[in-house]
């Protein structure tokens, strides 16, 4: 076996950034995430998995085994603004054009965003990761309004998000997928991104427009595993 080497050229990798946020509203009739809208002003997403905690059991005067609790996935979304479509996810209902009532039922949603992969050679052009979140529910958020002064700053909105996992073939239910562009064939990744981001109708009319939607985990696996 060859001797291990550390910090070789091209192997000093890192992950940074948050961009290309997309909100997907769930179709209450079909259960599909079939309406995607761009989320502008996204400043950060903090993923907060919880659970998976060991509970030790003892027998014969020794530690017998560890039982692991179920794992849960949560997140915090921070942004300068949000799409109008997110209002139903934030507990608002439009009573009349431009008039919104709060404290309403909150709609479940899906989310997609991208982080940048870099290394010591390509810097931020090494690749990226796509993060897909399913079954998300946003909790009420604090909004702090302040007077404009000599050090102006924009209001930052923040939402704590909990999730409900959905089924995955040959695996446990999940609320999160991560796709690494450096490990997926470019053609397959392009097919997936066309679904996630949508596609304009061609000017020649040879191709129809594709509406952005969030495919479920099994469909994502099928797309990326296709020959």
Largest sheet: 8 strands, antiparallel
Give the radius of gyration.
21 Å
Indicate the percent of residues in helices: under 10%
Low-confidence stretches are none
Task: Return the string of H and E elements.
Answer: EEEEEEEEEEEEEEHH
What is the overall number of helices? Answer: 2
Number of strands: 14
Explain this structure to me?
With 227 residues, this protein is mostly beta strands. Helix content is 9%, strand content 45%. The protein is built from 2 helices and 14 strands. The chain has helices spanning 186-197, 217-225; strands spanning 14-25, 35-39, 42-51, 54-59, 62-68, 71-79, 93-96, 99-101, 109-119, 123-138, 157-163, 166-168, 171-174, 176-180. Strands 1, 2, 3, 6, 9, 10, 11 and 14 form an 8-stranded antiparallel beta sheet that branches. Strands 4-5 form a two-stranded antiparallel sheet. The chain has a two-stranded antiparallel sheet with strand order 7-8. Strand 7 and strand 8 form a beta hairpin. Helix 1 (186-197) packs antiparallel against helix 2. The longest helix has 12 residues, at 186-197. The radius of gyration is 21 Å and the shape is globular. The two termini are 34 Å apart. The model has no long low-confidence stretch (mean pLDDT 91).
């Amino acid at each position: 076996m060859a001797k291990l080497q550390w910090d070789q050229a091209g192997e000093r990798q890192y992950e940074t950034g948050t961009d290309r946020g997309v909100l997907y509203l769930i179709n209450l009739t079909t259960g599909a995430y079939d309406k995607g809208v761009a989320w502008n002003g996204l400043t950060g997403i903090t993923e907060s998995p919880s659970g998976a905690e060991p509970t030790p059991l003892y027998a014969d005067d020794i530690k017998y085994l560890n039982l692991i609790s179920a794992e849960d996935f949560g997140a915090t979304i921070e942004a300068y603004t949000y799409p109008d479509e997110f209002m139903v996810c934030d507990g608002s209902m439009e009573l009349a054009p431009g008039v919104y009532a709060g404290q309403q039922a909150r709609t479940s949603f899906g989310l997609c965003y991208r982080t940048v992969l870099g290394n010591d050679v390509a810097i931020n052009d090494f690749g990226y990761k796509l993060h897909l979140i399913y079954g998300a529910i946003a909790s009420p958020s604090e909004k702090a309004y302040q007077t404009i002064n000599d050090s102006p700053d924009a209001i930052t909105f923040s939402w704590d998000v909990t999730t409900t996992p959905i089924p995955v073939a040959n695996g446990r239910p999940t609320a999160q997928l991560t796709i690494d562009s450096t490990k997926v064939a470019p053609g397959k990744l392009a097919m997936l991104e066309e679904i996630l981001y949508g596609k304009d109708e061609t000017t020649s009319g040879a191709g129809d427009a594709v509406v952005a939607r969030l495919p479920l985990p099994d469909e994502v696996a099928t797309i990326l595993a296709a020959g």
